[in-house]
Each structure stands twice: as C-alpha cells, then as structure tokens.
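[INFO] parsing input record for LysR family transcriptional regulator
[DEBUG] input buffer:
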Amino acid sequence: MDIKHMKYFVEVVDQKGMTNASKSLYIAQPTISKAIKDLEKELNMTFFDRSKRQLVLTDAGKVFYKKCKEILTLYKDLPKEINSLLGLETGHISIGLSAVMNMNKFIHILGEFHQQYPNVTYNLVEKGGKMIETQLINDEIDIGITTIPVDQDIFHSIPLYQEDLKLVVNKEHRLANREQINMAMLKDEDFILFNEDFYLNDKIIEAAKNAGYVPKTISKISQWNFIENLLSAHLGVSILPENIVNLLDGNFKNITIDDPGMRWELGVIWKRDKYLSHATRKWIEFMKERL
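[DEBUG] output buffer:
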C-alpha cells in the first residue's frame, strides 16, 4: 500500500467511477483498477459492492475512504509542518473574503503584513459566506473572513468587527428624507439583494418576515457595486453594511433601520481539524491586532 494507491481510490470515489477518475488523473483505467484490487487483496477486504450498476461503497470501503482522506491531508500538510518547526517565515495563504467587507482596510493590512513577511504569497477569493464555509470544509482555502457566529463544531472563529446594516436609497426616493425607518415601512418596496450565497440575504429576508411580509426581490447580485448601479437607476432599495455604504457616492441616502437584527459581525474562521501553516497562524494574529 502506498500514497499513490490511496489517491487513486479517493479519486474514484470522489469522481463516482473509474472512467471519470481516469480522466481526472490522466492515468489509464486498468492501472487504477489494478491498484484498487491490489489494495483489497492486501487488506483482505472488498471496497465496492460490484453487484450494483452504480458505484457503491461497502462498509469497509467507507471506513477506508475516510482514513485515506485523513492520511492524504496529513501527507499534503507535511512540508508546512516541517517549515513551521524550522521557524521559516515563508508560505502561501489561501483566503476567502466576504464580498461585503471593508476591502480597502483589508488591503491596507495585507500591505503591512507583506512588509513584515515579504516571502509569503496569497490567493484571494471573493465569495459569499456560505460558499466560504463550503470551501473551508473542502480544504480549498485556509481561512475565511465572513459573518459570525458559525458552527463551533466545524469552525474556529475570531471576531473582527461589528457594524450596522443600513437602508440605502436613491436620493430622490420617497424615503430619502427619513433619518430612521423600520422594516414594516419597506413592505411595498422592491429589494435589490445579494444572492443566496450570502448570509446578508438571509438576514434581510428574516427581518422582513418578522415584520409581516416577504420582501419583493427584483434582483440578486454577487457584487455590491452592481447594486450601486441598480440603485442609481431607481430600480429599488437595498440594505448594505455600513462600511460599504461609506464607499458610495453622493447620489444615495443611507437610513438607520430600527431593528436589532440589522447589525452583524464579521470574523476570521477556519476549519477545526485543519492544520494551519506558520504563515497562516501569523496572519490570523496580525488581523486580530488590527481590526
């Protein structure tokens, strides 16, 4: 048994068949098939129920798959652990960023961090909070900056900052002269919201339902600057975090919402059972000190 055979087995399960695994790995299907049969022979177990037309794992196959995933993760992270033990200030950090966070502040902090650790490289991915959590679970990114609280059984988290959510309207909108409104007053408005990947979407819909209605959503967006364009065209109203509101030009009016649910908190989150490199741990400490 070797690490290569484990990779073949995991890929077959993930790709739901040897044909797809063969294409993914660029390896001939007979080679993969032989590797799996060798594993089964060595362990004296059967991993697949071959009486089924579709790929079905046996109980032994399910256990072996889980353990292979753990071993492959340890194998992948071994160089990171060695670097950490040697105290090397190098590494690569993959970060999932909320599309509705204060990006200017983040970039400024990233620049400061780079001055101290110039050999660290980054991959920055801008997504909604739900997608960030999914990518963390699938080990596609190292850390995420998104809405908290999160499921503490799955993630660690560190709070960064809290902010109000504000109603944003075109300055010619009927509510533009108001200093404060409540959610019930927006019952007949057209809403421009972020899409379902964003927890902000859920928060707004929940607040509206608590006020007795389901918001009429005319558009769902993944980038806040598109919302700005739609507001300029008088297509509706939106609810945005205060830091985003402060980036808008003078064509809009932001209004306080009298609702305790119209506030949120962002934080750094990472998967509980995932090894964090020395560079990633340094980055978390650095962010915590400055936000």
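[INFO] The first strand starts at residue 91 and ends at 98.
[INFO] shutting down worker
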